[in-house]
Amino acid sequence: MAVEETGALRRIFGNTGFLVAGRATNAVCSFLYMAWSVRALGLSQFGVLMLVTTFGSAISSATHLPSWQPLLHYGNEPFVKGDLPRFHRILFFCMRADLLSGATGALVGMLGVALFGTSMGWPQADQFAAMVYMLTICVMNTGWSTGVFRLCNAFWLSSACDLSGVVVRMVGTGLGLWLHMGLYYFMMVWGMTQLALFITNSAMAWWLLRSGGRVRRFQPLRQLEAGDAPGIWRFTLSTSGNHVLGTVFNQFGTLLVGGLLGPADAAVYRVSRQIGDGIAKPAQLMMPALYPELIRLREKHDWYGLKHVTLRLFMLIGGFSLLLMLFAMVAGNTLLTWMLRVHWPGGNLMIMLLLGNAIMGLGIVPLEPLLTVVGQVSRVLMARVVVTLAYLPLVYFMAWRWHLEGAASASVLASLMMLLICMRPVIAWFGKVAPGRRPREEAE
User: Fold this and answer.
1) Dihedral sign computed on CA atoms, order 410, 416, 419, 423
2) With CB atoms counted within 10 Å of each terminal CB, which end of the chain scores lower, N or C?
3) Which chain regions cross the lipid bilayer (predicted)?
4) What DSSP assignment string belongs to 55-100?
C-alpha cells in the first residue's frame, strides 16, 4: 500500500510539473502582454478592458457545467475496463454539457451587459463592443477535452494546448502596441485567444482518443442508457454550483470594486490579484492532478492511502506558502509597478493581502477534490454558499470603508472561512474510515 501511495504522489507531482511549466510560461507572458496593454490603452481604458473580460469570464464560469468532473467520476471505470460503448455515451453527454452551457453563458452575458453594463463602470459608448465580446463565451468551455487529457494521463498535452492562447495574445497585444490600436482591437485579441484555446484543446483531445482506439465516430447525440452513470445530473449540477460560487468569489469582487471605486482602481485590484494568484499558481495546479489519483485510491477502498496523500500535501503546501510570502515581500510591489507603469501607494500591502487570499485557497487544494471523490460534494457546495453570502456584502462594505485594502482584506477573511468549513467534514470522515495509523496487516 505504501508503494501505491508513493506512486500516486509521484504522478501528482509529475503531472503538476507539466501544468506548472505551461502556466509558468503563461504567467511570464501575462506580465508582458498586460504591461503592453496598459501602455497601449492607458490605465483607465485598460480598466474597462479588464472589467469586460472579467465579466465574460465570470459569466462563463457561472453558467459552465464542469464536464471534466463527471467524465472522470463516471468515465474512469469503463475507460479502464474497455467498456467503450458506455464510455462513449458518457463522453458525448459531457460534450453536450459544454455546448449547452456555452450557449447559455453567451445569452446571459449579453443580457447582463444590456442591463448592468453602465452600473459596473463601463462607458455607454463601449456597451455594444462588450456585448459582441460576450459571444466568445460560446467557446470558453473545454471541459470534456480537459477530462480526456486527465483520463489518459496526458497533462503535458493540456499544457501544450495552453500555449496556443499565449501565442495569440502575445502576438496580438504586441501588434496592438506597435500599431497604436484601441480598446476594441484588444477585446478582439482576448476573444481570439479563447477561440484558439477551444480549437486546439478539442482537436488534441479527439486525436488522443482516436489514436488510442477509444473512439471511432463522432456521435454527439448519443444518449445515456439506464445504469450508465446513476446520479450524473445531480453530481454535475452540484459541482457546477460549487464552481459558480467559486467564480462569484473570485471574479465578482473585481466587478464590485469597479462599480464602487471606478475602472482605474479595478485595474489595480485585478492586476494585484493576478500577481498573488500567479505566485501561488504552482501549488494550485495540484488540484487537477489530484482528481485521477484520488479516484484510483477510492476505487481500491484505500482510505488510509487517501489520508496519507492528503496529509503529505498539506505539509508541502504549508512549507511552500512560507516561501511565497518571502518572495512577495521582496518582489511584489516591483511587479505591480512594472505591470501598471505607475507606482501605486500601498501596492506592497495589496500584494501581501491578495497573496494571503491565494494561500488560504491553497489549503483547500487537497480538501475539495477529496470531498468530491468520496461523495460529499454537497459539503463543498454548502461551504461555498455560506462563504459567498458572507463575502459579497463584506467586500462591498470594506471596499466602501477602506477602499482597495478593504476589498483585499475581505477576500482573505472569506478564504479563511472557506478553509475552516471544509476542514471539518474531512477530519470527521477520516476519523470514521481511517482512524489513527494504518493497521500493520494492511501496511504489509
Assistant:
1) negative
2) C
3) 12-36, 42-62, 99-122, 128-149, 156-178, 184-209, 309-331, 351-374, 381-402, 408-430
4) HHHHHHHHH---THHHHHHHHHHHHHHT-HHHHHHHHHHHHHHHHH
Distance, CA of 235 to CA of 228 (rounded, Å)? 14
Tell me if 22 sits within 8 A of 166, measured CB to CB.
no
- Tens-place pLDDT, residues 83-140: 888 888 999 999 999 999 999 999 999 998 888 776 666 677 778 888 899 999 999 8
Say which residue the cell 476505487 belongs to.
Answer: 299
Alpha carbons 24 and 320: distance in angstroms, whole number: 16
Query: If we measure between CA atoms, which residue out of 140, 364, 386, 134 comes closest to residue 248?
Result: 386
Q: Is 226 part of a structural domain of the chain?
A: no
- Contact (Cβ atoms closer than 8 angstroms) between residue 363 and residue 314: yes
Q: Write out pLDDT tens, residues 300-340.
A: 788 888 888 888 888 877 777 777 777 777 776 777 777 66
Reported in sequence order, the residue ranges of 107-153 that DSSP labels E, i.e. its strands, are none
Q: Of how many residues is the chain composed?
A: 444
CA distances from 317 to 55, 183, 364, 417 (A): 31, 40, 10, 18
Q: How many domains does the chain have?
A: 1
Residue 80 lies in a domain: yes
Domain membership of residue 223 (yes or no) is no
Question: Cα(5)–Cα(304) distance, rounded to whole angstroms?
Answer: 9
Query: The domain containing residue 91 runs over which residues?
Result: 2-218+231-434
Q: What is the rounded distance in angstroms from the CA atom of residue 207 to the CA atom of residue 200?
A: 10
165, 191 Cβ separation under 8 angstroms = no
442 domain-assigned: no
3-class secondary structure, 212: coil
Contact between residue 167 and residue 222 where contact means Cβ atoms under 8 Å apart? no
Residues with Cβ < 8 Å from 368, sequence gap 6 or more? 242, 287, 380, 422
The answer to whether the CB of 258 falls within 8 A of the CB of 48 is no
